[in-house]
Structures are given as C-alpha cells and as structure tokens.
Design a protein that fits this description.
Layout: H1 3-16, H2 19-22, E1 28-30, H3 35-45, E2 49-54, E3 57-63, H4 64-72, E4 87-88, H5 101-110, E5 115-124, E6 127-137, H6 138-149
Parallel strand pairs: 1-2
Antiparallel strand pairs: 2-3, 3-4, 5-6
The structure holds adenosine-5'-diphosphate.
C-alpha cells in the first residue's frame, strides 16, 4: 500500500470500532463520599478518574488533580464530600456506547480530559438524566492502537 492508503484503512478501522467494544468498568461513588474515601478508591481500583452519582444518575467527575488540590486547602478531607470539588453536570463531556472509538479519542483530546463516562440517556420527570454504563480513557484508546497495529483484534 501507499502510506495514504494505509492511513485511510487505519482510520476506517478505528471508525468501525464502537465505544462499547473498548470501554471498561467505571469507578463510581455517591456525592456524599468523602475526599479521603475517594482517594482510597482511586488507589484500590487503580484508576485516575472517579464518577459521582446521585440516585444512580451522573452528577460529576473527580480527577487526580481535583483530589490533590482538595488536600492542599488545609481542610479535613474526611469531612469534605466529593460533591464540593467535582466538575459538575452539565459541564461533563460524555459519550454513548454506540458512538465510535475515533469520536471518543477526539473528545478526550479536544476537551483535554483523561476519560469520558459512557452514558445512556434517560428521561425522568421530563428531565434528561444520564446513567453511567462504562468508561473510555486514554488507556482504552492506547490499547486499541496497539491491537490494531499488532493486527490482532
Ligand atoms: P487530571 O486532573 O488527573 O489531570 P483530567 O485531565 O481528566 O485528569 O482532569 C482535568 C480536569 O477536568 C479536572 O478538573 C476534572 O474534574 C475534569 N474532567 C475530567 N474528566 C472530565 C469529563 N469527562 N468531562 C468534564 N470534565 C472532566
């Protein structure tokens, strides 16, 4: 192949892969969880981002840096709930499981975040709510890149 054909095949392959094919299990806490407990979850579950829910619906995102920042203020991190420090809905960048892997990668790069909650939209009391069904992170995208380049999928 010429280089251009190869790149076209590669981009076609990535567009044919769905978010549901590469997503992983999200780590989820409720909004009253303390910053301390969120940090413990981050280590125990070996993730960089935690999603926050209320009544099962997406409310926020807490990253490593959010948690680090919360430890600098001199507050008792056992008493500060993650709801105080999270990035809140509707400012959360999400993706649905039927979208493709390239769009997930584009969102991650354009919005400068490490991971996206994979969501299902639900209408509840005439309001749109989001249920979390997975997570796509830079790691999932990198794994996909390696799989494609090794020719095994
Ligand atoms: P880190 O803080 O470890 O560098 P990120 O780059 O993912 O991780 O997070 C940067 C900021 O963006 C944080 O304040 C975090 O709350 C927020 N953030 C992370 N993921 C998302 C997302 N999917 N949508 C909106 N904001 C996010």
């Amino acid at each position: 192949y010429s280089g251009k054909t190869e790149i076209n095949l590669f981009s076609q392959e990535i567009k044919n892969i769905k978010v549901s094919d590469i997503m992983s299990v999200p780590v989820i806490v409720t909004e009253n969880t303390s910053v301390y407990d969120a940090i413990v979850s981050l280590f125990l579950e070996d993730v960089g981002t935690i999603f926050v829910v209320s009544n099962g619906y997406l409310m926020g995102v807490v990253s490593r840096k959010d948690l680090l920042k919360a430890t600098l203020g001199g507050n008792d991190i056992n008493k500060v709930p993650v709801a105080m420090i999270m990035t809140r809905s509707p400012n959360i960048i999400t993706i649905i499981k039927d979208d493709n892997a390239l769009n997930a990668a584009i969102k991650i790069i354009d919005h400068e975040v490490d991971s996206l909650p994979v969501v299902e939209k639900i209408i509840k009391d005439e309001k749109e709510q989001l249920k979390i069904v997975g997570k796509v992170s830079k790691s999932n995208i990198t794994k996909l890149l390696v799989e494609i380049c090794k020719g095994g999928s």
